[in-house]
Design brief:
This protein is mostly helical and 352 residues long. It has helices at 2-10, 15-32, 35-40, 48-63, 76-97, 109-114, 119-145, 153-174, 178-206, 216-255, 257-260, 267-274, 278-286, 293-310, 328-339, 343-351.
């Protein structure tokens, strides 16, 4: 926890990992004072406290899934929206259970089905499915952004161990024994220890090691070669990051048509939704041939307008407000600038 906390001060990508370890440190520190009670206890099926740890842990791990920080998810607004189901469920559970004064404890499948309609158990089952949702996102979220990336064997092994630990935790929540809980903690600790060691290894390999055996001329030649190589690498990384950001924007635009077809949708809204600031957004769009953010959004609206004209849903220029244009005049000028032809003639041609 301390190591990842230090790393998180310099790299935000380690922030969620530090939170995961901090939460489990606090939980273990509290549980350690009640060790005998935990060993002798009978929490029953789907104990709410165990489900709480499952949902919170899988939520944090899905943000830092496969060692890739999800874009924008470390912004407070997006993190809270992503965690909204957890927060709402927690509030509803406290409000619903507090008046009752006690939990519905069940120790067998028969008792579970007999009490399945109780509000307590219904909310616990919702928490269980919510935990599964976040666990699935551990794999799905990075694949949406890096679907062309070949993951190393160590990363695949980590994923397998992580999924194994979640399955073991599910089984422990249904059939509790102290040994199963200890086994889960060992697997969970080892999987996170792997990332701590991996992070330290990455840092160590990047630390420069000067070679003091070279003379001045050789050193100058090496410095020039390294500088040229570094410039090429920076340019390559620059182009790669622009490509990834552009892919992220494309995915968002393709999946959120209703948003950008609204007249109130602006470039600032696009930046906010994709988690990319205006400067980087303009940079990645220009790398793909777009003049600016406004032109990029307009291009999508023009393509959608052409599609609606072709299927007969737009029969006149006044209907162009459907795709986000404020006025018919704006639609005409944008269409002519991008398509190089008159919008009225195009609509008439398609209608004829």
């Amino acid at each position: 926890m301390f190591l990842t906390g230090i790393l998180a001060r310099h790299r935000v990508q380690y922030l969620s990992l530090a939170w995961i370890l901090a939460i489990f440190f606090v939980v273990i520190a509290i549980v350690a004072m009640f060790g005998k009670s935990v060993a002798d206890g009978r929490p029953g099926l789907l104990n709410p406290y165990m489900l709480l740890m499952l949902v919170v842990g899988s939520y944090l791990q899905s943000i830092y899934s496969l060692g890739l920080v999800m874009p924008g998810f470390l912004q407070w607004g997006r993190m809270l929206r992503y965690a909204a189901p957890v927060l709402v469920l927690a509030v509803v559970y406290v409000i619903a259970i507090f008046p009752a004064g006690q939990l519905t404890i069940v120790y067998s499948a028969d008792e579970l089905f007999q009490n399945i309609l109780s509000l307590d158990l219904i909310l616990r089952l919702v928490a269980l499915f919510l935990g599964v949702f976040y666990v699935v996102n551990i794999v799905i979220l990075p694949r949406r952004l890096a679907y062309k990336t070949t993951f190393p064997l160590s990363l695949i092994a980590y994923t397998a161990v992580l999924i194994l630990s979640v399955v073991l935790y599910f089984y422990t929540a249904l059939n509790y024994t102290p040994m199963l809980l200890c086994s889960y903690m060992v697997i969970f600790t080892l999987s996170n220890f792997f990332w701590v060691c991996h992070s330290i290894e990455v840092l160590v390999t990047k630390i420069p090691h000067p070679d003091i055996s070279m003379n001045v001329e050789e050193a100058d030649m090496v410095d020039k070669a390294e500088e040229a190589s570094s410039d090429a690498k920076r340019q390559e990384d620059f182009n790669e990051m622009n490509q990834k950001r552009y892919m992220r924007v494309q995915l968002w635009m393709q999946g959120h048509k209703a948003e950008w077809m609204s007249n109130g949708f602006t470039r600032d809204k696009l930046c906010e939704e994709t988690g990319i600031n205006r400067q980087l957004m303009l940079q990645c769009l220009r790398s793909q041939g777009h003049n600016n953010i406004h032109d990029y959004i307009t291009t999508y609206r023009i393509e959608e307008l052409k599609r609606l004209v072709q299927v007969g849903r737009v029969g006149s220029v006044s209907d162009c407000v459907q795709v986000g244009f404020a006025t018919a005049k704006t639609a005409r000028s944008c269409f002519e600038r991008i398509e190089g032809r008159n919008l009225d003639d195009y609509i008439a041609q398609m209608a004829g």
